[in-house]
Structures are given as structure tokens and as C-alpha cells.
Amino acid sequence: MKIYGDHQSGNCYKLQLVASFLGITYEWIQLDIKNGDTKTESFLKLNPNGKIPILVLDDGKVLSESNAILNYLAEGSEFLPKDPYLRAKVLQWQFFEQYSHEPYIAVARFIQHYLGIPEERRVEYESKQSGGHKALKVMEIQLEKTPYLIGDFMTIADISLFAYTHVANEGGFDLSQYPKINQWIERIKNQKQFIPMKSIDM
């Protein structure tokens, strides 16, 4: 299988992380979203939405959307519960990640870490802070109750939210005020086969 992605993207890092945890082999196709690699005719044939990551299976079938790919890769593993309620809780956190977390924390990170907060995007950057802290507080409340987001074991819900949470400081979010999140981050980093996000050449 092939994964098309960008090392600078947290959504792509999710797939690298779950593949490492599960020992899945794949070919990585590096794309640079800032250079327009996802807007080429050949890429748009794979994903008309023009976004990464995408997964291309050996038979040519294509999957897009990072959390959908996570669910596919984790099927049958300990990272995706068989119990219907727990599986729904995984999905609950993944929907939370895409609608209440990523639009604030990931976007703020992009504006600060990649663009250096240009003046024309400063208002947008500042507007992301309250939403990002709201999402982090929701996570902190849950992690005060359980070591992982749905209980005592790690799932792809944790992988989904780890990707951008552990680098939230790069978007101006002070994680020191979230002790349970910090403990959770270290818990995941201490897992066997953990791999860090590749550093960015600024």
C-alpha cells in the first residue's frame, strides 16, 4: 500500500504512528502542500478534494480522510474496540478532533509555525486561541478520569488527538496548564514502536 502525505502534517503523522504501532509496511509518497503538490491533475484523480493524506491499497482502491484511514488500518487490532459502545466512543472523539480541535489548534499552528503570524492573518490566529483552549479543557476533564480517552487502554482516538495536541505549543497554546494532557502525551510517547513527528526545516 501507499500513503501520500506530508511530514509536516499532523493528519498524515497519525497514519505513520498507527502503522508503526501495528507493524504495517507501506510506501510513503512525500508531497509538499505549500508547493501545490495536491493540486496536480494526477493527484486530483486520486482525491478530487485535493487533500492529504490518502491511502492507496494494493488493488488500487483509494481512501481519504485521516480518521477514516485510521479506522481501516486499525480494524481487528487492539486500537479499535469490537464493543459497539466503545467503538462509538472512539468515533465520538474522532469527530470531536475534526470539528472542535483541529480547526483551532492545527490552524493556529500553521499560521504561527509555518507563516510566522503574518499581519494579515493575526486576527484569524488570535481568534483560534479560545476554541483551542476549549478543546484542550474537554480533553483535560476526560483525562482526569481515565488514562486514555475512552478508558484504560490506547485507541485510535488517542492517536487522532495526539497528532496536533502534542505540538499545540507551536500554535501558541501553553500546555503547562493541562497536567493530565501532559501525562497522557508522555504515556503515548512511552509506547513501544512510538515514532516522533519529523522535524520541520524552517
UniProtKB/TrEMBL annotation:
- Could you tell me which InterPro entries the record lists for this protein? Glutathione-S-Trfase_C-like (IPR010987), Glutathione-S-Trfase_C_sf (IPR036282), Glutathione_S-Trfase (IPR040079), Glutathione_S-Trfase_N (IPR004045), GST_C (IPR004046), Thioredoxin-like_sf (IPR036249)
Question: Would you say which domain of life the source belongs to?
Answer: Bacteria
Q: Which UniProt keywords apply?
A: Transferase
EC number(s) on file: 2.5.1.18
What residue stretches are annotated with the GST C-terminal domain? 83-202
| Pfam families given in the database record | GST_C, GST_N_2
Keyword set includes Transferase = yes
GO molecular function annotation: glutathione transferase activity
Start and end of every GST N-terminal domain?
Answer: 1-81
The cross-references to SUPFAM superfamilies, in alphabetical order and at most eight, read: GST C-terminal domain-like, Thioredoxin-like
In its keyword annotation, does this UniProt entry include Hydrolase? no
> What is the protein name given in its UniProt record?
Glutathione transferase
